[in-house]
UniProtKB/TrEMBL annotation, chain A:
It comes from Polaromonas hydrogenivorans. It is a multi-pass membrane protein. The chain crosses the membrane at residues 20-48, 55-77, 89-109, 167-186, 215-233, 253-275, 287-305. One of its GO terms (molecular function) is branched-chain amino acid transmembrane transporter activity. This is Branched-chain amino acid ABC transporter permease. One of its GO terms (cellular component) is plasma membrane. Its main location: membrane. It is found in: Cell membrane. Pfam families: BPD_transp_2.
UniProtKB/TrEMBL annotation, chain B:
CDD domains: TM_PBP1_LivH_like. This is Branched-chain amino acid ABC transporter permease. It is found in: Cell membrane. One of its GO terms (cellular component) is plasma membrane. It comes from Polaromonas hydrogenivorans. The lineage of its organism: Bacteria, Pseudomonadati, Pseudomonadota, Betaproteobacteria, Burkholderiales. Its main location: membrane. PANTHER family: ABC TRANSPORTER ATP-BINDING PROTEIN, BRANCHED-CHAIN AMINO ACID TRANSPORT SYSTEM PERMEASE PROTEIN LIVH. Belongs to the binding-protein-dependent transport system permease family. LivHM subfamily.
């Protein structure tokens, strides 16, 4: 085995602290039963952020429309449960497949142009879907949202209860499964080519990486994972609304990822925990104006610098490249 | 039909004035400023507050809205934006989204979330109709006023950019900052002025458009997309590109909402995506340059 293979393998191994972390996460719904629903939400948002990390952190595509896939997966799963059958796992699969197909279709839009073009196109796709979900009210319930989604028991025996414990475990399991999968992906040779594209697209092309094909594959994959997150969201809340597609979702998930750190899969998870807890705390203090503090946080974050924020002792020293 | 065309043109002109500042910051200075709508909202609220609380006449409010948002833009440029010119686009996007969130929440806090209504003076309220039948042209006086103001501004801008010393300095600074600085052009000052004027125009657009577009705290988010479309589709190298893009967008939007209301904004977004896939740099790109 040669050195690069060895280093990729080393990176993809689990560290000793990781199983402990996951065990803690799975124990959390029992330890703090009153917060099971927020744990569920954190798991979903974390999954969503991890999927964005795949294209933003690892491949360097700036996207403002990731909610398109989130909403697509969510609506697909909810409609499937309402119209066809209520089994959650099949619904999840339907959500993932639909979002993946959409991702494959949209992957052609991100290959050309500059950051601005990509921002606009991704944003546009999200808005088109929002508009569609709004206007096709015979199917989606329009602005009122899709009501009456009843989920069957998980694996035929675990009912979704009111306390949200089953929901939390369900979401955590899906998060863990997809997390392990994505971890394999980013530490594979394929993942290495993605990073090469992120760092210097021209050079990547010059050493023979088929850039467009890789971009299409990773975008599709990320769309599928975001679809899974959306499906979990509608399945555990039993409700799908236009909110799934809204712009603030795309903005929030980007923020989450940046708080946690891009290009590091745990970044999405850490960001989701911090963001959700912060949102919970802030919105209980100022229910209407918490977005102000989120905005202020963002501005400070960028001005101070993302790397320097976690190292407060460098704030007042001059230097760096600024 | 002509009426729709007319309304579309008025709407497009308005969008152009709102977006032209953004075209400059985003296209020329290469800064992705999603917070542009916040300046427009500032202009709109300055007008509304002046008229409601202090009874200032509408015509006087417009220049005040311009000055107010220009000052705001200038101050923010100097303090917050300038350090970010050379940061990655992701940082700029995050920063400006943060600003938008703050602006939305603050306006909500200080003014309230209800939609604000502007009382137009009597002479702007009427409507003139020409011809009859299918070819009837109904012109709202206020829309006529908007078209007149915007056309005058467009001509003025084009003149400033193409024929004045300031215009050539700006073009030089944009093309190559270092060489421009070496020639003795105060690049920082040029950018500061440009940013302030761009924000001022946005504010003026917001003041003019408050009646047509509606004004509430979600304004920057709601219309951000439209500004961005104008800039992205029009290309950012000239004034003509965004102008044509704004007119196209305005007409498509008004006509689409009139003829096929079921589809709503769907048409505009699809049009944008199609154009951007076809020409990623926008419709009108200056040859040469970088």
């Amino acid at each position: 085995m040669n050195a690069p293979q060895q280093s990729l393998l080393n990176d993809s191994r689990f560290r000793p602290w990781e199983p402990v972390l996951w065990l803690l996460a799975f124990a959390a719904p029992v330890l703090v039963p009153s917060h099971a629903s927020i744990i569920n939400e954190i798991a979903i948002v974390a999954l969503f952020a991890v999927s964005l990390d795949l294209i933003l952190g690892y491949t360097g595509i700036v996207s403002l429309g990731h909610a398109a896939f989130f909403g697509m997966g969510g609506y697909a799963a909810a409609l499937f449960a309402k119209l066809v059958m209520p089994d959650p796992l099949v619904g999840l699969a339907v959500g993932i497949v639909t979002a993946t197909l959409l991702g494959a279709a949209c992957s052609f839009t991100i290959m050309r142009g500059s950051d601005l073009t990509r921002l606009m196109v991704t944003l546009g796709v999200g808005l088109i879907l929002l508009e569609l979900a709004n206007k096709l009210d015979w199917l989606t319930g329009g602005a009122d949202g899709l009501q009456g989604v009843v989920m069957g028991p998980l694996l035929g025996q675990f009912e979704f209860d009111l306390s949200g414990r089953t929901a939390a475990w369900y979401s955590l399991t899906v998060l863990l499964a997809l997390f392990v999968l994505l971890r394999r992906v980013v530490h594979s040779p394929f993942g290495a080519t993605l990073k090469a594209i992120r760092d210097n697209r021209l050079r990547a092309m010059a050493i023979g990486i088929p850039v467009n094909r890789k971009l299409a594959v990773v975008y599709t994959l990320a769309a599928g994972v975001a679809g899974a997150a959306g499906a979990l969201m509608t399945q555990t809340t039993g409700f799908a609304s236009l909110d799934l597609f809204e712009f603030h979702r795309s903005a929030d998930v980007m923020l989450i990822l940046v708080i946690g750190g891009t290009g590091w899969l745990y970044g999405g998870v850490a960001g989701a925990i911090v963001f959700k807890l912060m949102q919970d705390a802030l919105s209980s203090i100022t229910p209407q104006y918490w977005t102000f503090w989120i905005g202020l946080f963002l501005v400070v974050l960028v001005l101070v610098g993302r790397e320097r924020l976690i190292r407060p002792w460098t704030w007042f020293s001059r230097g760096g490249k600024a | 039909m002509l009426t729709i065309l007319f309304d579309g043109i008025a709407y497009g002109m308005l969008l152009f004035i709102l977006a032209v500042g953004l075209a400059v910051t985003m296209g020329l200075m290469n800064f992705i400023n999603l917070a542009h709508g916040a300046f427009a909202m500032a202009g709109g609220y300055i007008t509304v507050l002046l008229m409601q609380r202090f009874g200032v006449p509408f015509l006087l409010c417009l220049p005040l809205a311009f000055i107010g948002s220009a000052l705001l833009g200038g101050v923010l440029e100097r303090t917050l934006y300038r350090p970010l010119y050379h940061k990655p686009h992701l940082d700029q996007v995050l920063f400006s989204i943060g600003l938008v969130f703050m602006a939305v929440a603050s306006v909500d806090y200080f003014v309230g979330s209800t939609q604000q209504i502007i009382q137009l003076p009597e002479w702007l309220k009427g409507r003139t109709e020409l011809g009859s039948g299918d070819w009837m042209l109904g012109m709202g006086h206020y829309r006529l006023f908007i078209i007149a103001v915007c056309a005058a501004l467009t001509v003025g801008l084009q003149y400033v950019l193409a024929y004045t010393r300031f215009g050539s300095r700006l073009r030089a600074s944009v093309d190559d900052q270092r060489v421009a600085a070496g020639l003795g052009i105060n690049v920082n000052m040029v950018f500061l002025t440009t940013f302030a004027v761009g924000s001022g125009l946005a504010g003026l657009g917001g003041a003019l458009g408050a009646e047509v577009l509606g004004l509430d705290p979600s304004f920057p988010l709601k219309f951000m997309v439209y500004f961005l479309i104008v800039v992205a589709v029009g290309g950012t190298s000239s004034i003509t590109g965004p102008l044509l893009a704004a007119l196209l967008l305005g007409i498509a939007d008004v006509a689409g909402k009139y003829y096929i209301p079921k589809l709503g904004a769907f048409i505009v977004y699809s049009l944008m995506i199609a154009i951007l896939i076809w020409r990623p740099q926008g419709l009108f790109v200056r040859k040469g340059g970088k």
